[in-house]
Specification:
CATH superfamily of the largest domain: P-loop containing nucleotide triphosphate hydrolases
Number of helices: 18
Number of domains: 2
Largest sheet: 8 strands, mixed
Low-confidence stretches: 452-485, 498-502
Strand content: 15-25%
Structural class: alpha/beta
Helix content: 25-40%
CATH architecture of the largest domain: 3-Layer(aba) Sandwich
Shape: elongated
Radius of gyration: 27 Å
Number of strands: 17
Mean pLDDT: 84
Strand order of the largest sheet: 3-4-5-2-6-7-1-8
Length: 502
């Protein structure tokens, strides 16, 4: 081999070594087998549910950098697009996005040294008010950092080629994100440890068959035990002993399943613990015309950042030993005035052949009764005691006396029932549909005399400790321990203490 060829070979080798050294997203770290599968998947939806600290976020970041700096992949990934221009990367907050970028993206995975200015691999970060906003690659791809708290309307002007979500978002964000991908025929990636207990994601990862969401997605549920070895067969830093220590430190079996095994589970403390989808959800049936209907209405200001309005229609068998929730709606993301709400409920009511025993409303909405009266309706203040309403719901569900129709419009109600916790502060609770349902059943003359297996719990059996726990859940934000509206505080205590002997 002559000297010129040797020099050329040496240069090629040097270039290859430089690439390996300065492209850490490709060569800096070994892959776990599951991580390689996620990294290489070209499914339109890629959903990863995994335990904590096992490189799920790192694997997703590596994929972002790889796709953004690999023009040879683009014709196959986006055959209808000449050039992908925009990726969206979602974090819970701008603060966390900035911390992650400065401590993970830049030092661990982005091209470094002389490749930082490369025509393809080169990149620059742009900040606004000290928070990371965009990551621009010389390839022409921009990664825009977004947050879950941002208004859905802010997304409507964007057409991303791919979206990446880090940790569990509010599930109400998903439809708009997917809509943004329609024009680009783009890709959705989600890497999360389930902590919020949202029904949508439970159905994504745990359900099979009719109730399964994202049936055609590439899905993985990864445990720490899946990380004992890298794809080349060598041992990782994870060991059985280390995992066992983490298991021993978890507070509950549910936490072990979630944080170690990547399973979708909820801790105890659910507000509607008696709810069982297998027995309390049924296919719609014809309701006899002699069954009376009770209607509950919970008014709200609507929009993404406030509580939406909701209404619920419940039909009772004439002996009041069985109830069907057969109609209802939660106005997610829709601003509804009280006039709008009254009008919708009136229109729904006109379609009924059954007798309506009453429309029960949240009397904190002081003008809704007058609006209904002006429209020829007489609405009745609801029984707002949570102790009474939740007791009726749990007892009736436990004893197979309460059914919810399996319809699309009632799915948000089912999601609330499955996930709502006693410990959730009231101002943070997604309970609007449950409140409307509770109003629709709280003043009905239930007949529990047929229940003989055990006595029905009465409000007098509540303890002061439980009342204090509920008070905290309703009116104290646990992040800053700031007391909320004082009038609400008085109202809540009056409702609770009216039902106790204290």
């Amino acid at each position: 081999m002559d000297i010129s060829k040797r020099v050329e070979k040496a240069k090629l080798l040097e270039e290859k070594l430089k690439l390996k050294k300065n492209l850490p997203h490709l060569y800096g770290y070994k892959f776990y087998p599951w991580a390689r599968n996620f990294f290489e998947s070209t499914n339109k939806i890629n959903a990863l549910c995994a335990g904590n600290q096992i490189s799920k976020s790192s694997t997703q970041i590596r994929k972002v950098v790889y796709w953004a700096t690999s023009p040879h992949l683009w014709p196959k990934l986006w055959p209808h697009m000449k050039h992908p221009r925009l990726f969206l990367y979602f974090y819970p907050s701008s603060y966390l996005a900035t911390i992650e970028f400065e401590n993970k993206w830049a030092p661990e995975f982005l091209p470094r040294q002389e490749l930082k200015d490369h025509p393809i691999y080169g990149w620059r970060a742009e900040y606004r008010a000290k928070f990371i906003q965009t990551l621009k690659f010389n390839s022409g791809v921009t990664v825009a950092f977004k947050t879950y708290s941002q208004d859905v309307q802010d997304l409507q002007a964007s057409t991303p080629a791919a979206v990446f979500i880090d940790e569990e978002p509010d599930d109400s964000l998903i439809p708009e994100i997917q809509a943004r991908l329609f024009a680009s025929d783009g890709y959705l990636h989600l890497a999360m440890t389930p902590t919020l207990g949202q029904e949508f994601f439970r159905e994504v990862f745990e359900e099979k068959g009719q109730r399964e969401r994202w049936k055609d997605a590439f899905k993985q549920q990864v445990s720490m035990y899946d990380c004992l070895k890298y794809e080349d067969g060598t041992n990782s830093f994870w060991t059985h002993e280390r995992i066992q220590k983490i298991i021993n430190s978890c507070k509950s079996e549910a936490e072990v399943k979630r944080r170690v095994f990547g399973r979708f589970v909820l801790d105890s403390g659910l507000k509607y613990a008696a709810f069982n989808p297998e027995t309390n959800i049924i296919s719609p049936v014809q309701i006899p015309v002699d069954w009376p209907v009770f209607i509950g209405v919970d008014s709200g200001s609507g929009g993404r950042f406030s509580h939406p309005s909701a209404y619920c229609f419940t039909a009772f068998r004439p002996d009041f030993r069985l109830a069907y929730v057969f109609k209802g709606r939660r106005f997610d993301g829709i601003v509804t005035t009280n006039s709008d709400l009254v009008q919708v409920v009136m229109e729904e009511k006109r379609e009924l052949k059954n007798p309506v025993y009453g429309v029960f409303y949240d009397y904190s909405a002081t003008d809704i009764r007058q609006i209904a009266y002006d429209m020829g309706e007489t609405w009745i203040p609801a029984e707002k005691s949570h102790l009474i309403g939740e007791q009726f719901i749990n007892v009736s569900m436990k004893n197979d006396m309460f059914k919810i129709f399996d319809t699309e419009e009632l799915q948000p109600l089912v999601a609330e029932l499955k996930s709502l916790k006693i410990s959730t502060p009231k101002n943070q609770a997604h309970d609007d549909f449950c409140d409307a349902m509770r109003y629709s059943i709280s003043k009905a003359p239930w007949d529990f005399s047929g229940i003989s297996s055990q006595p029905i719990a009465t409000p007098q059996q509540r303890t002061l400790t439980e009342l204090e726990e509920r008070r905290k859940a309703f009116f104290i934000d646990e992040t800053d321990q700031v007391m909320q509206n004082l009038e609400q505080e008085f109202e809540m205590w009056n409702e609770l203490l009216d039902q106790t002997g204290y």
